[in-house]
Amino acid sequence: MLQRNKARSHNDTELLKVVDLSRNSCLAYMEYGDPAGIPVIFCHGWPSSSTMAELTDTAARQLGIRIISPDRPGICGSVPAAQRKLLDWPPVAEQLADHLGLTDFRMLAISGGAPYAFATAWSLPNRVRAIAVVSGAPPIAELPDGAGLLPLYRWMLALYRRHPDLLRVLFRATRPFVSMKTSVHVARKLLRMLQPCDAEALRDEAAFNACFESQRRAWRGSSQGVMFDAQIYAEPWGFPLEEVTVPVRLWHGKQDRSFSFRLAEYMASRLPNCAAHYLENSGHYSTPIRNMHRILQDLIKTRSSGVKE
User: Fold this and answer.
1) Where are the domains positioned within the chain?
2) pLDDT by residue (tens digit) across 5-39?
């Protein structure tokens, strides 16, 4: 299904790149696909890291796309930014684009990367040509009862609102177990607990490693970075979806249990320039794994005016 780049599997740190940011900070990033291709900035999920973009590598090479995948602040090689807000991200993305000499670019977001793509499109409409959001997280703070969210997310959200100090303790306690190499083996054994469409997609070794090794890498960096990243989802985004005028392509599985496709429909109804694809017999993981070529091909054919090239 996916062809893992063997050079990456040995030591990803050798391929990690770093760009200096303002205020004595720095951002780490990886690149996939065609180095001379159409630039697409990738927004990884949560808890995850830049190597999640391995999901795109084969399709991006075939389509002539350059995938630029940064670790968000506090994740792996990127310097933490305490108490950061979602709208702190667009200036970081812009500095990365400037460093790479990109006049404009497209964006691809999976799951928890969605708010970051929306925020960048809202803040930099003259530079972001289009965004594709796959299995994307909605504006959770706007959901009064957490309807449509995975029960674990509802539990974490309630704990964050009522007992944030306890949640921090639990994150710190979780890190030693999740960051161990054996955690990936445990996750592989737990695939049977997923719905069939996701379990089947994740039996592909390259897809599984892209999803779960990238999570382990994030936890290995620091529990604080993962926690700061999680806090973003519980807070208001700082802008209304109605003001995102950049073309948006939503891809969501109708069997998604992390974020119900009804939430994707809710987002699509608020976006002024959106084409939504709701996929039958597809879940949270299987949607990006099985449809990456189609997703990327559609993304690069989308003009900033919303007209196909």
Assistant:
1) 7-300
2) 433 443 454 578 988 887 778 999 999 999 999 99
| CATH code of the domain occupying 7-300 | 3.40.50.1820
pLDDT digits (tens, 9 = 90+) for 204-255: 989 988 988 888 888 777 788 888 888 999 999 999 999 999 999 999 999 9
Is the previous residue joined to 35 through a cis bond, with omega within 30 degrees of 0? no
| Partners of residue 65 on adjacent β-strands | 38
Question: Could you tell me the CA-to-CA distances from 114 to 9, 138, 225 in Å, in that order?
Answer: 26, 8, 18
Residue with tokens 């997923």: 194
End-to-end, the C-alpha distance of the chain in Å comes to 28
Question: Looking at the whole model, is its pTM more than 0.85?
Answer: yes
Closest CA relative to residue 191, chosen from 209, 203, 183: 203
Contact 149, 140 (CB under 8 A): yes
Provide the token pair at 10.
């040995």
Please, which contacts does 166-175 make with residues 24 or more away whose CB atoms are closer than 8 Å? 167/227, 168/227, 171/223, 171/224, 171/226, 171/227, 171/230, 172/223, 174/219, 174/223, 175/219, 175/222, 175/223, 175/226
Tokens (6 digits) for 288: 């990006």
Q: For the chain (length 309 residues), average pLDDT per consecutive 10?
A: 41 71 86 97 95 97 98 89 90 96 97 98 98 97 86 83 81 70 65 89 90 85 83 94 98 96 96 98 97 98 59
Residue 221 has φ and ψ, to the nearest 5°, of: -65, -60
Neighbours of 2 (CB within 10 A): 21
**H helices, E strands: number in the chain:** 13, 8
Residue 139: closest CA among 227, 228, 235, 44:
235
**Distance separating alpha carbons of residues 78 and 96, to the nearest angstrom:** 12
Q: Let me know: does 135 contact 252? Beta carbons within 8 Å.
A: yes
